[in-house]
Amino acid sequence: MVQKLVIYPDDRMNCTSTDVRSFNQTLWDVLEDMRDTMLAHDIKAMAAMQIAYPYNIILIKEGEEYHEYINPRIIKNEDLFDSEESSIHYPDVTVTIPRYGKIKLVYEDRNGKVHYEDIEDRELAAILQRKIDITFGGNILDKVDKNTREKILDALAGKGLMPQTDDVCPTFSRKDYFVSFTDKLLFFMGLSLLTPLFKFSKETVENIYTFDKIVFPLIIVLMIGFFFYAQYEAKKYKQCSSCQIGNNIGVIIKRSVAALAFAIGAYFLVNPY
């Protein structure tokens, strides 16, 4: 099905795409929508976020064939050159950007099989780098100097294309404070497991264990707070909520499991009673 393109000033592309974990019909439907949209608009390459799917997927048309790159990552690059580039996100904008003419790519296909590919064609290498930038929430204007960027945005404003000021996907979220504080507490919980390696007094060991007992429920409370704030933010920034939700569950599970593991470790390794 042909989907609507994400065109400036729609800021959904500022969101980082999530890696594909399930290689099933949902993925294949996204690929089909990308293909249909590329065909309808005569587009040679597309990242999934360009039609508002927040997944790390790139589709490139070469001749009559469509090459699918799922979760692509560049693991090697060389041959820096100046690439003249445009983007469907910014109408009638062309900029010169330094790119690598040779790259080594690792990616998965639609069935989850891992592939490695050496790309030595400069044009294709530049296209892949541009699309991978999009999967990380970047765009071609992030690659130019401040003055050039401002001139381009002023020119777009002259055409009536103004950036949105309310309810856009933020580049920084206050929910990150929950994660930052939680990670610091987890660090000290993990550090406390080294207590048996030192000859601390019984009182010191008791204090360390008390710290672990207090911090574990505190982390759970922080993750609950993170969840509810993320829900609030997802409702506030509706056009970007899908790319937020994709990461939130993983953040909560990883840190809650880590806290539980450290708490169990403290019970057996640090508990002085």
TrEMBL record:
Record protein name field: Formylmethionine deformylase
Species of the source: Sulfurovum lithotrophicum
Sequence similarity: Belongs to the polypeptide deformylase family.
Keywords: Membrane, Transmembrane, Transmembrane helix
TM regions (residue ranges): 185-202, 214-232, 252-270
Presence of the UniProt keyword Transmembrane in the record: yes
GO MF term set: peptide deformylase activity
